[in-house]
Specification:
two-stranded parallel ribbon; about 5% strand; 6 helices; single chain; Rossmann fold; about 150 residues
Length: about 150
Amino acid sequence: MPKQHILIVDDEPNLLESFKIGLELKDYVVSLASSGKKALVAIRQSTVEAVRAGAYDYLEKPSAPEAVHLRIQKAVEHQTVKQKLEDIETLVGDNFKSAVGKSSAISEVFDPVRRVAPTDSTILITGALAQKTGYFEAADSGMLFLDEGGG
């Protein structure tokens, strides 16, 4: 995975340098801007345009370094999940043609997925009425024999 690039904007040079050092130690590529105008030159977008283009979040001062790092981690996780979703959508396609299940029950699962897929929402799909240990989970690190089912 390529290093994530972070742009930090603040009018206090010592604070900028402190965040830069801390984030570079956490393996981020860091750019600094000492004003909003300089940041806009650096990214050539307004805040609204940046959000529309995919900016995940912004922080208000004062922000503790731990809070900044947590927000950055969440933004990176969000981007990773978003990329995985795009990969799945590419693999599965609009009509879920490669989906294994064709039953009416699985169709009922796919219908809301099709409606929610184009949005930025998170969904949880579940059908369990109670927790039950499945065959794969029960096998743990052991062996599970799978035989072709007759029909």
